[in-house]
Amino acid sequence: MKNIKKCPACSKYTLSEKCSCKKKAVSPKPPKFSPEDKYAKYRRKAKREEWEKKGYL
Asked: Which tens digits make up the pLDDT trace of 5-49?
């Protein structure tokens, strides 16, 4: 069974690994929640840096 994927470049949905624009399609679903999340610290840091670049913080 194939899962639906979304192209980050053109925002189209597809069932294949690559979109028609030749970019790699990724899963549109967020990762599962876990109380013992090992990578939460890194995700928050990346999000903060992104927001600082955009001038939100």
From this structure: 999 999 999 999 999 898 999 998 887 888 888 888 999 999 999
> What stretches of 1-57 adopt beta strand conformation (E)?
5-6, 13-14
Provide the 8-state DSSP code for 26.
B
Rounded distance, CA 15 to CA 57, Å? 37
Residues with Cβ within 8 Å of residue 51, at least 6 apart in sequence: 57
pTM above 0.70, yes or no: no
Q: Which helix (H) or strand (E) holds 49?
A: helix 40-54
- Residue type for position 57: L
**Exposed, middle or buried, 14 (CB in 10 Å: 0-12/13-18/19+)?**
middle
